[in-house]
Design brief:
Blueprint: E1 5-7, E2 24-25, E3 43-45, E4 49-51, E5 59-63, E6 68-73, E7 78-80, E8 93-101, E9 109-116, E10 121-128, E11 134-140, E12 142-147, E13 159-165, E14 169-174, E15 177-183, E16 195-197, E17 200-202, E18 205-207, E19 211-220, H1 226-231, E20 265-266, E21 271-276, H2 280-283, E22 287-296, E23 299-307, E24 316-323, E25 334-337, E26 344-353, E27 356-365, E28 369-379, E29 384-392, E30 396-398, E31 403-404, E32 410-416, E33 423-428, E34 436-440, E35 453-458, E36 461-466, E37 473-479, E38 490-495, E39 502-505, E40 511-515, E41 528-532, E42 542-547, E43 564-572, E44 575-582, H3 593-596, E45 601-608
Parallel strand pairs: 20-42
Antiparallel strand pairs: 1-4, 2-7, 3-19, 5-6, 6-19, 7-16, 8-13, 8-19, 9-10, 9-16, 10-11, 11-12, 13-14, 14-15, 17-18, 21-45, 22-23, 23-24, 24-25, 26-27, 27-28, 28-29, 30-32, 31-32, 32-33, 33-34, 35-36, 36-37, 37-38, 39-40, 40-41, 41-42, 43-44, 44-45
């Protein structure tokens, strides 16, 4: 396919100084604009003029609702520069756009937005939501939504959306018909966030991307009437052919399809314990994430990233707790490394080597800059951790304990922080716990990857399963030479939450994958599930529920919106110990959104292996 960009035609704005706008695709240069005013004061993006001299991103020309249209590949966005005041007109505004989704079930697909989350710049957005419905999200202290009716949205078909802001309310229309409205309890924030189309640019992290076509985007500096919206809609019956995204990797091999949430069977005999409560009023810590566990000298160790401030900031610490009764009760948290003014140390993985317990921890400077991995070894006599320095650079952050391969080397799975954040592994030099090489797994899946990954090892054969940030489905890649060379990481046929997974092989010969894996959960981080293969088989064929979000019969936090995430597992004496984070549905978490991210408790599920066979 020939990829190219299109020059965008924008009119001067009546509610800001007249500016000629160009359009940036992803992070390319700005194309020369031409003026094509629909009427005075209207920002008009017809998306139908091709400038093949400038390849600024991956978009293709298609037949649109009026002349040509633009198809986005699910990894690129269009960003309107100098657009921070576009929707700040005192007279309100109206957004009208045509969209044609190529797929549902990809999580939240942003159509048009004015947000930069990491800078706490949140105003509004139009999206195709994870459940296949069109919604508008409006910032009113927190997010409030305007939901369209269940229209049975079909890939390949055109839909016209309109969002209207009046003085005291906002209204949503689809195909000229009124859907619902939201009374405004306060003014919408006015921020410096740029208007983006087809996704969000979150300080270089491109995500919530849209895979589909768009045409005729218009922003009016006034609130249009329902009559005007209806008059501006004419049905488009043409159905677009959905482009291929390449072959899927077969992770799911069950006779039946992956079950829905309500169809899951609960794992019997599981017991639950709390490793560390969320209690900032007691200890001052808010952020907690990335729980890792290991059995060492008949004690259970748990480590995690801990922060009195916000996630991924300089006050992050690596901490741990110890259980002498295999998870029933836990010590108060202790510190592995608190870093310093220029260094933050966070969560990571454990490793047993020659009778000693090691920890490999992700670390960074500033706001998640210069990410690397540091090693520590536990002094059993002094009951403290000894630092052994940096062992991996190149942005590597470990996510799974090292596993021994057939060649005697160890492989430690994780991701490379930077760019599209691809899945990566670290391979030891021989049996040396201090010498590692980073191997980045090539990727071809469109959109944001954020490839937190896990591996299953069989001799020299290694399967990598990774989070896919752009879509709630597992990515997969394979190496046949001990992780040195890899197939491209591609979308699989198995749904999986857009969060870190954990996989392995049980002593029964069954392969397992812990995440949220159901046919209908999308990007929701619940229920916590375990997918299983039959002994010796390659593909997963069953999914069981470890615990749901609302879980009053168990210990730990229970809420219908609880996020159960970032699992880590270890087998010991006939049981599988599964540690995970739980945000309690956000209950009791105060402060700005940035500081509330991953304000978790750390919890533990103990599963009898007999219940997994």
């Amino acid at each position: 396919m020939h990829w190219f960009t299109k020059s965008i035609c924008l009119g001067a704005l009546a509610f800001a100084p007249p500016i000629h706008f160009g359009l940036t695709v992803a992070h390319g240069q700005v194309a020369d604009p031409s003026v094509d005013p629909l009427e005075s004061g209207v920002l008009h993006l017809p998306l139908d003029r091709v400038d093949s001299r400038r390849v600024l991103g991956r978009g293709s020309s298609i037949i649109g609702v009026k002349d040509g249209g633009l198809a986005l590949d699910g990894r690129s966005i269009l960003k309107v520069p100098q657009s921070s005041e576009i929707s700040h007109a005192p007279t309100g505004f109206t957004i009208v756009m045509w969209v044609n989704p190529f797929a549902l079930g990809r999580g939240q697909q942003m159509l048009l937005a004015k947000n930069c989350y990491s800078l706490d710049q949140r105003e509004w957005s139009l999206m195709l939501d994870a459940d296949g419905r069109f919604r508008a999200y409006i910032r009113q202290g927190n997010w409030k939504t305007i939901e369209a009716a269940d229209l049975n949205v079909q890939p390949g078909r055109w839909y016209q959306l309109a969002l209207v802001k009046e003085a005291t309310r906002m209204k949503l229309y689809v195909n000229g018909e009124y859907q619902d409205e939201l009374p405004l309890s306060r003014p919408i924030p006015k921020t410096e966030a740029a208007v983006t189309i087809g996704g969000v640019d979150d300080q270089g992290r491109i995500w919530q991307t849209f895979w589909g076509a768009m045409d005729e985007v218009q922003i009016y500096p006034e609130a249009k009437s329902a009559k005007a919206i209806a008059a501006g809609y004419q049905p488009v019956n043409q159905v677009l052919k959905i482009p291929s995204i390449g072959p899927e990797y077969r992770l799911w091999g069950g006779k039946e399809s992956v079950p829905k949430t309500q169809e899951l069977k609960r794992v019997e005999g599981t017991t639950f314990h709390v490793i560390k409560k969320y209690e900032p009023s007691v200890d001052g810590y808010r952020f907690l994430h990335g729980v890792a566990i290991a059995v060492h000298r008949n004690q259970l160790f748990a480590s995690f990233g801990h922060n009195r401030g916000a996630e991924n900031t300089g006050s992050e610490e690596a901490r741990y707790a110890v259980s002498t009764d295999l998870g029933k009760t836990w010590s108060e948290p202790r510190t592995i490394d608190a870093g310093n003014e220029d260094l933050a140390v966070s969560h990571g993985v454990f490793h047993h080597h020659e009778g000693r317990l090691w920890a490999y921890l992700g670390a960074f400077h500033g706001f998640r800059q210069d990410v690397h991995t540091r090693a520590y070894v536990y002094d059993d006599e002094a009951n403290r951790w000894e630092p052994r320095g940096v062992v991996c650079e190149e942005g590597f952050w470990p996510m799974q304990q090292p596993l021994k391969m057939g060649n005697g080397r160890w492989i430690m799975s994780g991701l490379q922080v930077g760019g599209r954040n691809p899945a990566a592994v670290a391979i030891s030099e021989g049996d040396d716990p201090l010498k590692w090489r980073v191997v980045v797994i090539p990727e071809s899946a469109p959109g944001n990857v954020w490839g937190e990954s896990t591996v299953i090892v069989e001799g020299s054969q290694v399967l990598n399963i990774a989070r896919y940030g752009a879509r709630p489905i597992a990515l997969a890649a394979r190496s046949s030479d001990g992780g040195e060379h890899w197939t491209k990481s591609v979308a699989s046929n198995m749904p999986m939450v857009t969060s870190k997974p954990y996989a392995g092989t049980l002593s029964t010969g069954q392969k397992f994958l812990i995440a949220t894996t159901t046919a209908d959960s999308g990007g929701r981080r619940s229920p916590l599930t375990i997918a299983l293969s039959e002994p010796g088989e390659q593909a997963f064929s069953r999914v069981l529920e470890i615990r749901p979000a609302l879980f009053d019969e168990g210990v730990g936090e229970s809420h219908k919106n609880a996020a159960l995430a970032y699992p880590y597992a270890v087998e010991h004496k006939g049981r599988l110990y599964v540690a995970y984070s739980n945000n309690g549905g956000g209950v009791g978490r105060a402060g700005e959104p940035r500081s509330r991210a991953n304000n978790n408790s750390a919890e533990l599920a103990v599963i009898p292996l007999s219940e997994l066979q």
